[in-house]
Design a protein that fits this description.
Shape: flat
Order of helices and strands: HEEEEEEEHHEEEEEHEHEEEEEE
Number of helices: 5
Structural class: mainly beta
Oligomer: single chain
Radius of gyration: 25 Å
Low-confidence stretches: 1-5, 210-220, 313-324
Distance between the termini: 72 Å
Amino acid sequence: DPMDKPEFISTLAANVRSRISRFDLIGYPISDIRLDGQYKNKTCKATLCSNDPRVNLNLDGSADLSLLEPNIQANLGLHSIKLTEVASYHTPIDSATAKGLDKLILFAQKNHNVEISLDTLIYNSTGSKLDNLNGFVGIDGLMIFNERHPFYSDRIRFTAINTPAGLHKYILSSDIVNASLNTNYEYKDIKDSLFNFVYRYIPNILPQREISKNKQLVNSNQEDKHFNFSFETFNTEPLLYIFLPELYIAEHSSIELNLDDIAQQDHINIQIPKATFKDRFNINNFHLTSNTAANHHMIIDLTGDPLPFANKKAATLSLHQIGL
């Protein structure tokens, strides 16, 4: 039977032209969907178009499975999702337990005329698993319209780089936040590397691992392992208004974290001009800097305006040259 032969997939060719009368999205029945596709020589190309009055989009995609590592590309144009109308078909979301996209649905259920659109989304990736995935995501003209705090982002760019030598690098740039992660730890070791940083300077903070307070990650090649992370905020208020309205973070709040396994040249820098959460506390002009001294102690310099907690007397932050 030729269907049992491995070469069947490699010689398969097919063309698909179809109309989908209904597809449910969070309970809303999308209608008038057209799907055209082609498969040949282990390459798949497809176009999906929805002209539904509440969900209007075009998606072009391709997948090349003939390569050693599959390549996937996609281009999305989202003309409009009338989210308030779509979310009305969804069961009511419990605000106490809502997470992730449920918070967006909850927001649409509670507000009038919430609508999502974007000019274009471009996706391109090569790889079959997280540690060898290389790719790019670009979003232009993303808007979540609502009557009180419309959210708009002109451009969002995300790049993932994973090399055969074990370097993992991720870069996010946008007018909302910038962030980057650069490390040569294996993914399974990242969590332990962060814990070991805490144990290095405060070994008894977690008693259950006190036995390994001086233990470093196993590094058979004595390679210099590093973990570098940076994060800076810009215009976050409209997005937080949708997903976490209790939180406010001022522009140019930043975190810089540089950890080194062997050289132990660790560095932390945190700056928060202003942040509030649920009106229970305020952070103003918070600045923490810490560096590793010659004796492997951590030297901390911490300053900030008084911290007023709800119904509590303000406490002034001022620690200079405290060694741990």
